[in-house]
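ARCHIVE CARD
CATEGORY: sequence design from structure
SOURCE FIELD: tokenized fold
FIELD CONTENT:
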């Protein structure tokens, strides 16, 4: 039996999906594969929180509540940030200039041996750690800022 592909969707992917932005069709395709049992999808609870605060800040509480209802109905597993996952994310953050929330997506992808689904340019910095399924062509993704040191959280 062929093993299912595994995907960790970050906040960029969900915000594109929820806002019907570029890359939404790729997210829909992945979610359809998850629904059909051909793939497994994961979302870190930390990234879920990131989706909610961005949605509430930009569109209000009612839209954030709609996002919760939508995500709760999707064929993926929301993964809690337990002690070992938090330590793994901290290790990523200590060595790479990515946001703390992105570090959770990266650590989860490592744990699940999954691809991260994103369009966030920060993930260019970690392509040596995890496979990345880009929502946009790599030419469309701007270069991430390169300070040489891990950045402060954004």
């Amino acid at each position: 039996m062929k093993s299912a592909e595994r995907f960790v969707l970050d906040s960029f992917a969900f915000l594109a999906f929820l806002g019907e932005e570029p890359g939404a069709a790729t997210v829909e395709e992945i979610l359809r594969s998850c629904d059909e049992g051909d793939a497994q999808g994961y979302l870190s609870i930390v990234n879920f929180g990131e989706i909610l605060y961005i949605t509430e800040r930009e569109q209000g509480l009612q839209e954030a509540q709609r996002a919760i209802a939508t995500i709760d109905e999707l064929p993926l597993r929301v993964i809690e940030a337990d002690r070992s996952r938090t330590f793994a994310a901290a290790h990523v953050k200590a060595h790479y200039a990515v946001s703390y929330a992105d570090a959770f997506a990266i650590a989860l992808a490592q744990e699940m041996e999954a691809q991260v689904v994103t369009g966030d340019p920060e993930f260019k910095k970690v392509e040596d750690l995890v496979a990345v399924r880009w929502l946009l062509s790599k030419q469309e993704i701007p270069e991430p800022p390169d300070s040489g040191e891990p950045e402060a959280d954004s």
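CARD ANNOTATION: The chain has one domain: 5-140. DSSP finds six helices and five strands in the chain.
SHELF: design records, drawer C
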